[in-house]
Each structure stands twice: as C-alpha cells, then as structure tokens.
Amino acid sequence: MTLRQITLALTAVASLGMAGCNSIAGSTNMLTDEKIRSSTGGALGYAPADLTIVSRRTDGTNTYVAVKAKDKKEFNCIINGGNLLTMGMTNPASCAKKGEPIKGAGLGG
C-alpha cells in the first residue's frame, strides 16, 4: 500500500466516524422546551416564562432555536450540547436579534 492509499483510507474512516457521531448526537438530543427557554432566557435577560419557542431544529450537537419574547422581540439562538455525546451538558446559549448574525457561537457554531 502506498502512502497515498493509506492517507485516503484513513480519511474515509475518519469521515465515516464523524458522520456516525453527528447522527448519534442529533438523535439523542435531551433538550426539553423548558431547558431551552431557561438557557435562552439567561442569555437574553428574560424570564423563561416570558419566552415562546417559535421553532427548533437539531443538527449534530447544535440546537437552533427561534424564540419570541412577550414584548414581541424575536431572537435566534444556538445551544451546543444536550445530547448523549456531551452527557447532557450544554454550553450557554448564543443569541442575536432575528436577522442579525450570532456572534461567539459555542463549539461547532
């Protein structure tokens, strides 16, 4: 086997391994709506009860959430973690007003 063949084989194995981890992380997400409102509320300075989840989706270890506050302001947030691969632990939510880029997003964000 040449060095090139070995490199290609290792790259293929690593890619398959990462795809498997991404699938496990997405399918084992443990974030409840209550945990999401608590995390985003803390980042935005709102009480969790003052936020409504408009939409959410999980991609790998990140959960993308759109929330609306009682004062009608809307925000987009990223929460990293909350799945089997992170043992349920999360990083603080990173949020921005709807339509603005999210700065300082957590790992993978």
UniProtKB/TrEMBL annotation:
Signal peptide: 1-25
Keywords: Signal
Domain of life: Bacteria
Protein name: Lipoprotein
Species name: Amantichitinum ursilacus
